[in-house]
Amino acid sequence: MIALMQKQPFTALAAVYDAIMADVEYDHWADFVLSFARDGGLVGPGRALDLACGTGGFTRELRAAGWDVTGLDFSEAMLTEARSRLPGVPFVQGDLRTFELGERFGLVTCVFDSLNNLLTPGDLGAALARARAHLSPGGLLAFDVNTRLGVRELWEGDAIEGLAPLPDGGEVHYHWSHHYDAEADVGVVQAFCRVDEQEFVETHRERGYDPADLEPLLSAAGFARWEIVEYPDYAPPEPDAPRVWVFAWAGEQ
User: Fold this and answer.
1) Using CA of residue 60, residue 138, residue 95, residue 89, what is the dihedral sign?
2) pLDDT tens for residues 80-89?
3) Which 3 state secondary structure label does DSSP give 148?
4) I need a surface site. Which of 83, 105, 144, 207 has the fewest CB within 10 A?
5) Is the pTM of this model over 0.85?
6) Rounded to whole angstroms, how far apart are CA atoms 149 and 76?
7) pLDDT score of 172
8) Rounded distance, CA 214 to CA 207, Å?
9) 161 exposure class (CB count in 10 Å sphere: 0-12, 13-18, 19+)
10) Of all helices (H) and strands (E), which one includes residue 60?
11) Model confidence pLDDT, tens digit, residues 123-164
12) From which residue to which does the signal peptide run (predicted)?
């Protein structure tokens, strides 16, 4: 008999996450971020902090580009996978809203709409403030978020399903259904997975943030200036943009 287990977000999923996300273009995102950083005058490669690093997909690209990178994530299960894939890279468990590493970095990143998992502006503002506190003078924070429209419309009634091969020769069957909870103003994902005789489901929630939501939070966090753009051409976001990228610079002091 197959046992279905309800799991906390990013716990059971960790072991099959990379298989399901095999097509994610971490390399292209890294080129996008690092090109902007170079054009903006950031001297590198230097020290980088990858927030909400998960299993280390983006961390790997930063390291391949020569950055001395540290990864931070709330999920120990995801970090276990990251450590096995990237031995020698320091990975730290921490909460985006409260972490304190006691060091600073020239570049801080947080990709793949990870900040949308923070469901209140207060929590997002706290995370931005912690990121700012860990930047060296003149350093750069780069992150992406789904907009309100992106969460509200693109997630409504959508579902993805497939089979993905696992490194041990097995496979994971996944079915992820999405809907928009209008009362809570969040998108909800029911992430179902089956591996052999084990089934589990995790419930993930995201809140959308528009540029108008982000700008006062960036200001309050102490950033000197920022640009909000679309991928991949760095153009100003259209009103119907489902996702935006933010590049926020620390001051020189």
Assistant:
1) positive
2) 999 999 999 9
3) helix
4) 83
5) yes
6) 31
7) 98
8) 12
9) exposed
10) helix 57-64
11) 999 999 999 999 999 999 999 999 999 999 877 777 899 999
12) none
What is the four-CA torsion angle of 112, 115, 117, 120, rounded to 10 degrees?
A: -160
**Residue 51: per-residue pLDDT:** 99
Contact 250, 132 (CB under 8 A): yes
Distance CA 245, CA 212 (A): 13
Residues of the chain with pLDDT under 70: 1-4, 253
Q: Please say whether the beta carbons of 172 and 166 come within 8 A.
A: yes
Nearest Cα to 118, choosing from 152, 79, 173, 74? Answer: 74
Residue 3 pLDDT:
54
Classify residue 112 as left (phi > 0), alpha (psi -120 to 50) or beta. left
Sheet holding 186-195, edge to edge: 3-7, 198-206, 186-195, 171-181, 159-165
Write down the pLDDT at residue 1: 43
- The H or E element that residue 50 is part of is strand 47-51
Tokens encoding 212: 């108008």
Count Cβ atoms below 10 Å from residue 67 Cβ, excluding itself: 23
Amino acid 5: pLDDT: 85
Specify which residues 195 forms β-bridges with.
172, 198
